[in-house]
Structure formats: structure tokens, C-alpha cells
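Reagents: none. Just compute today. TetR family transcriptional regulator.
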Amino acid sequence: MVKRTPIPWQRYDKENKNVKSPEPAESGKRNTMNKLLAAARNEFGSKGLGGARVETIAKEAGVTKQLVYHYYGSKESLFVAVLDESSESIMSELVALEIEQLTPPAALRAMLNRFFDQYCHDPLLGALALEGIRYHHAHETPRNRFLEMAPGLITKVDDILQRGAATGEFKKEINPRLLLATAALVTTGWFTNRYSMSTLTGLNTASPEGMAIWRQHSADFILAGISVAPGCEVQAPR
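Predicted 3D structure written out:
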């Protein structure tokens, strides 16, 4: 009788008498990195880059500090990875937003509301955005997913503007990049500049009432700036 030599990468289950293959190493690594990114996001979002501790992140993720440095090299590189993941999540959701069946004003309002809701539903996003701005101002950072995915969002906004101009609801030749930048600042400023917003509006930025008022106002403000008044025909600037 020939004795069979077990294949090294297989595991024998004595109870079920089955030979099982383990999870691929790459899958295990990805799961570990996902846990690290989630733990790092909480740490950076609550304490900032300067206050965050790799030891705390490693403990929360259930790994060693050495493994964190093995995967990311430094705390700063891990922070950049967190920003990149957050950017990809935000942009992917906006680009995939199904609004093509809506009228141009309704489609743009839905997108503006989603800008606001992303920050509203994620308490850490505003803090991460501010910390990311400070970091990018002081460091040269590699090309990231935000830059790669931005053209898709610009095209989506431009399609809405073109449809609105064709129906006579929007002014002609609105620059989609400028509109998108303005919209992002107006809607998300509620979360990234809470002190000034609260002082100027007299509203609590963390209250449901304050958030509801700014959510509607910011969308109304952007739409009013590009909409054609009923009965008026706007000539494109020369």
C-alpha cells in the first residue's frame, strides 16, 4: 500500500476526515489591513495625526505594532492610507448615485444633499478632512484615489448642468469644476468649520434642527445661483 504524503498547504480535519485548503494568504492580509484601517480611522479622527498612537491602533486591530510598521512603514503613511480609503468611499458613492432619471434641479439637489449627508452620517469625516488639509499643505503626497476619481464626478455634474441648460432650467456654460468646488465648500463647511458656522448662523451645528436648516439652505443657495428665473432667458457670457 502506497503511503500518500500530505500536500504542505493542506490541512487535515481529523473529525470530519476531510482535507481543507486554508484561506489564501492575500485574503488574510487584506482582512488584517482592513481592521488596521478601521482602527486607524477612529484614532486619527478622534485624536488627529499628532495625538494618534500606533500602539493604540495595533491593539484595537488585534495585531502587533511591528506589523503596522511592516505594512505601512510609518504613522504618516498609515494616515495617508486612511485618507485615501475615505476619499475613495466618498467619491465612489457620489459617482454611483443614480440620479439620471431625475429632472436637472432634482438631480443636482440630490447630489448636494448627499454631500451633506456623507458628513452628517459619519461623525469622523469632518475631523479627518481638516486633518487631511493640514497634512497635504505641509507634505508632498502621492497621487491618490480622490484625484483619480474626481474626473468621473465632474463629468456627472457636467451632464446635469448640460441637461438643465438644454431644458432652460439652468444658466448656460456653468463651469462644472467651479460649481463642484463651491458646492463642496458650502455643504460640508457645516462640519469642517463648526465654530464659525455656529457663531454666524446662531445655530447648534450638532443639533438636528441646525443640520436640517443648513442642509436645505446650502442646496437652495447653489441652485438659486445657476437657475433661470421663469420667463427669463439668460444669454451666455461672451
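The first helix runs from residue 25 to 51.
Action item: order primers for follow-up constructs.
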